[in-house]
Amino acid sequence: MQLTDLSWPKVQALSKDMPVVFPVAALEQHGRHLPVFTDSLLAGEIVRRAAAKLGDRVLVAPLMWLGNSDHHLEFPGTLSAPPRTYLDLLAGLLENFIQHGFKRLVFINGHGGNDVPGRQVVFEVRQRHRERNDLLLLFATYWKLGGQPHTIRSDFKQQQMGHACEWETSMILRIAPQLVGDWKGAPPVEFGEAFEPAARGWITKDRSEPGHIGYPSAASVEKGETLFRVFSDDVIALLEKVIAWDGKSWNGGGRS
Questions:
Q1: DSSP string of 96-127?
Q2: What pLDDT was estimated at residue 41?
C-alpha cells in the first residue's frame, strides 16, 4: 500500500500496528559507468518487489533520495546531507509517524553511507520515547539482511557489496541497461585496507580514482535478477517478522 495514494482520513483509518516502510537511498557518483541515481533506483526496485508481495499489510512511504554522501563530494553530481543533518531528517520522519499513532517503523536502506547515521537515528528516537514498549524502530540495509547471492550462482566474483561494482552494475543492467556506460572496460578496484578491523575515516578518492570499488566487468543481467530476488526476499522476510511482532516484547513472535 502506497502512502502517496491515500487521503489523510484513509491513513487515519489504518491499523496503527501496520508497519510503515521508509525507503532511503542516495544521489551520488557511481563511477564512470553508472548513473548518480543508482542507489535510489535499486532500493526503489527492491522495495517495490517486496511491497507487491505484501500488499495491504504494509504502508510504504515515498523513497527518500537524499542521503549522507559527503565522502563522494569530490565527484560532480553528488548531492549530500551532512551526517547530523541527515540524522535529524530521518528522526523527523519517525517522529511524524509516531505522532500519527503508528508503532512499527522501518527504514529500508540502499546506500552504505546512510548506515551509521541510520542506526543512530533509531537509537536516539527510542531514547526519546523510553516510556513506550510498543514501538518497534528498525534500520535495515538491504544487502546486510543475510542474503548470500554467491551461494546461488557460482559465477559471482564478489561476495560482498562494493560501489558501482559487479552487484550494483548487474542490477542496473537488469532494470535500466540504457543508463549503463562502459562497464566491461572498468578496471578492478580491490576491497579491504591495511588497518581493518579498525574503522578508518576516509573519502572515496582515498580508495578509488574512478569512483567504483569492486569488479564491474563481471556484471550481467542474469546476475542482476538473482540479486534482486535475493534482496527482495530478505526484505519480505524482515517485514513478515515486523508484522508478526507481538507488540511489546524483545523477541516477540506471532500473536496468539
A1: HHHHTT--EEEEEE--GGGHHHHHHHHHHHHH
A2: 98
